[in-house]
Design brief:
Layout: H1 14-27, H2 40-47, H3 51-63, E1 67-70, E2 74-77, H4 79-83, E3 87-91, H5 101-114, E4 118-121, H6 129-146, E5 151-153, H7 162-175, E6 180-183, E7 195-199, H8 201-214, E8 220-224, H9 230-244, E9 250-254, H10 260-268, E10 275-278, H11 281-293, E11 303-305, H12 311-315, E12 322-323, H13 327-343, E13 351-354, E14 358-359
Parallel strand pairs: 3-4, 3-5, 5-6, 6-7, 7-13, 8-9, 8-10, 10-11
Antiparallel strand pairs: 1-2, 12-14
Helix pairs in contact: 1-3, 2-3, 5-13, 6-7, 8-9
């Protein structure tokens, strides 16, 4: 008797095994243009299953945009299926320099593996931002040569013209008809059409600003480093908008957090900041050390807030109030967005913003 359900002790249902086998054959070029896939009856005989199981496997291929059916002729591979290599490209320049990026990459890899794909990681590890830009361009050209099926790209930062480099990379992929999704950082849509997945930095900034107002802050500053990413400006704008609602204002300080010489004029005056929002937790941790040189403590003299919610935020003394990055959600949505784009290149560009909750800790607690 033929079994259509999961066999006792089997790891996966039979229809899924058939789907994965046919998916691999599609990627290996077994069914080039004009050559039909096996009929449902052939699948029944080949795998020894019921027609219901065969139909479900074929329907899954259709749902994923890998096949199309021509009445009276059969089922054929779509252009997507014929061009898919089973490999996806990942360009993450901040992988070695930010704690949130390894879990995003790991979650992307797991999502791809579950879907029968694998991510190829581009080696971008130079300390110099300009050199990282050169490495990113080199990796992009390699991905085009390898004919990857799609790319997840984190735009460059800490350059004088980071958007120019990102536009060049996107243009390279567009010319090769390789779909690309940006994560973490965005560039203007008019610069290059693309999908983007990241957190709602503007909304997160507003939440931070409202929280500081509730804590009684009167003089709020926002510390960012030179040539920072555009998302940092979104965070600043969010904090600014929250304070402006209460007729407050935010002072922008552009300096390295360890540069005591550049920061001293801001904190030595009588009207020094009583709260500082930093572009990231790492910047906040360095600023706290610099504040001790000015005989200022957190939170007694200065309330301190960061972004990202990495380990140094929890281990800091006092623990740091920060905005949490939902790394697993970012990866899941970015992967699904890329797969959607691979199935249908005519979709309008999408900008998907995920909520990022404020985590309140002792660095903003009143003494």
């Amino acid at each position: 008797m033929k079994r259509t359900a999961r066999a006792k002790g089997a790891g996966k249902p039979k229809w899924l095994e058939i789907f994965e086998k046919l998916q691999k054959e599609l990627r290996d070029g077994v069914y080039p243009q004009g050559v039909p896939l096996p009929s449902e009856g052939t699948v029944v005989r080949r795998f020894g299953v019921s027609r219901i199981t065969a139909v479900r496997a074929m329907e899954e291929l259709r749902k994923r945009g890998l096949v199309w059916r021509k009445r009276g002729s059969g089922t054929f591979a779509t252009k997507v299926a014929r061009e898919e290599s089973g490999r996806l490209g990942l360009i993450m320049p901040s992988l070695s320099f930010g704690e949130i990026f390894p879990p995003i990459c790991q979650s992307l890899a797991r999502a791809a593996q579950a879907d029968g794909y694998s991510f190829v990681f581009g080696d971008i590890s130079a300390q110099c931002p300009l050199q990282r830009a050169h490495e990113a361009c080199r990796v992009a050209r390699t991905f085009v040569e390898q004919k990857v099926a799609g790319v997840v790209l984190q735009p460059l930062a800490f350059l004088k013209t980071p958007e120019r480099v990102t536009k060049e990379i996107i243009a390279l992929f567009n010319e090769a008809e390789i779909p690309v999704v940006l994560v973490d950082r965005d560039i203007p849509q008019e610069a290059a059409l693309h999908d983007f997945v990241g957190i709602d930095n503007l909304g997160a900034g507003r939440a931070v600003g409202r929280h500081l107002l509730e804590r009684g802050a009167k003089r709020v500053s926002f510390l960012l480093r030179p040539n920072c990413a555009s998302v940092i400006r979104d965070r600043l704008d969010g904090v600014r908008s929250a304070l402006e609602e209460m007729r407050g204002r935010v002072e922008t300080i552009e300096a390295e957090p360890s540069d005591a010489g550049a920061l001293k004029p801001h904190f030595a005056r009588r009207s020094r900041p009583d709260a500082v929002v930093c572009e990231s937790d790492y910047v906040a941790a360095q600023l706290r050390n610099t504040l001790t040189k000015f005989a200022l403590s957190v939170p007694r003299d200065v309330l301190l807030v960061g972004f990202d919610d990495v380990r140094c935020a929890v281990s800091a003394t006092p623990p740091l109030t920060t905005v949490h990055q939902p790394c697993a959600d970012i990866a899941r949505v970015a992967y699904q967005t890329l797969r959607d784009r691979m199935r249908d290149s005519t979709l309008p560009p999408r900008r998907i913003l995920l909520s990022a909750p404020l985590v309140i800790r002792d660095s903003t607690s009143p003494i």
